[in-house]
Amino acid sequence: MSSDTVVDLMFTDPLAVDGHISLPDTDNLKTNNLPSGNVNVRIGIKQVQMEQDTAKTITLDQNGSTNHLIDYNRVGSPLIEIITNPEIHSPVIAVAVVRKIRHLLRSVDACTGDMENGDLRADVNVSVRPRNTPSSSPLGSRTEIKNLNSFKSIHDAVTSEYHRQVRLLSSNQKVESETRAWCIGGTSTTLLRKKDGEIDYRYMPDPDLHPVIISPSLIQTLRDSLPESPDDSVKRIISDFGITVKDARILLTIDDGERLEFISETCNHVKSLLDTISHDEKEIGRTVTNWTLHELGGLATPFEELHITPNELAEVVVFLLGKKITGRSAKSVVQQISLSTPSPPCPSSSDSTFSDNTTPIDRNSDGRDGLVVKILNDQNMWIKEMSDEEYTTLARSIITSHPEEVARIKQKGQVGKIMFFVGLMVKNESEGRVDARRAKQVFEREITAL
């Protein structure tokens, strides 16, 4: 069999061809090498093929002599190579493509995606051509950078190699077709070996391997059993919880989905306790997400080691949205429960709704008379409703300090300024007890009486 035939077999019998990776607006790409308008980058996948590792060459320089060793530990290990089309035009897009492929592979449980341990690696081909060159023009000579094992390495290696090739061409030198390496912390790629063409890969058939035949029914079964795609998951999370794209992507990628499940369970419990007619479901979703991501996430403790349950956070959110406690009190309760030392569960407790190991406390059937309520009671954190006298005293003090705004309301009819005064009252009352609607009524009464 001729060498040309061997190479041809490698490219005519791949596992899959003509796919693509989409990087929609939700990927939040930031680069000057993107088309104007809405960002929706589509990178073609030329093919997906299965290969075998053969051996790894190790070069040792000792006592003035060079020894070349061959490590056969990986011989026969299969690997899947995903080859993209030459449509990536910036280091940012290169990183985004690898990140998306990693996310997709992890979402279908194809691999762990641990790049540092070799579960996923990237070989990047780099070539340059003059700016404003038609896309149909041939690409320049390319170099291949092998075995990049982090997103930062991909970005830095591509950037460095781009500048190296530009310098060569600017000084009328030729870019050689080479295989190059990148060292973490390095400033430039280094030469591994020269290559003249595809034949340097030395593809060869294995007579002991039979053809792999995949039936259409198996393909359909696998297609039907695939989980929701990451992009669809992001859209669903945004729709369900009313949160930002950034927060949705964070939820999808951290803590193996545990935090997302925590938020979903918390939201469901909040809805069961609140009158959802007066509280928008997206407001609930945003509030719960904010507390889970930012307040719990800011405790510098692994999420799985926090001792707060979805039911307990739901109670805090219910009291917060119902203006029964202040944000400061809510934060204190969440911190105390989350960072508490767990105790064995109470043997006599029959409430299976709570699965935490916090100090045993009597809870009523709906779970609202538990640890959260105990802390609020013991530490006297409930908001004490302001009396009419307190509203009046605070309003008169604010009115006296802002005569110009009062004049605009009295003389020019700028009634919208009333809300300016309401904002000041909310700001000046440090315990967060001001009800904006009641404050507005008091200001209207006091200013009218002037």
> Cα-atom Rg, whole angstroms?
32 Å
Approximate helicity band: 40-55%
Number of helices: 15
Share in β-strands:
5-15%
Q: Order of strands in the sheet with the most strands?
A: 6-7-8-9
How many strands, which pairing sense, and closed or not: the largest β-sheet? 4 strands, mixed
Report the count of strand segments: 9
Order of helices and strands: HEEEEEHEEHEEHHHHHHHHHHHH
Shape: elongated
List unreliable stretches of 5+ residues. 1-9, 34-38, 343-369
Mean pLDDT: 81
Protein traits:
3-stranded antiparallel beta sheet; alpha+beta; single chain; 450 residues; 9 strands
Q: What do these coordinates show?
A:
It is built from 15 helices and 9 strands. The chain has 450 residues and is of the alpha+beta class. The chain has 3 domains: 3-52 and 78-223, no CATH class; 234-378, no CATH class; 388-448. Helix 5 packs across helix 6 and helix 10 (327-338) crosses helix 11 (371-378). It is elongated, with a radius of gyration of 32 Å. Mean pLDDT is 81; it is low at 1-9, 34-38 and 343-369.
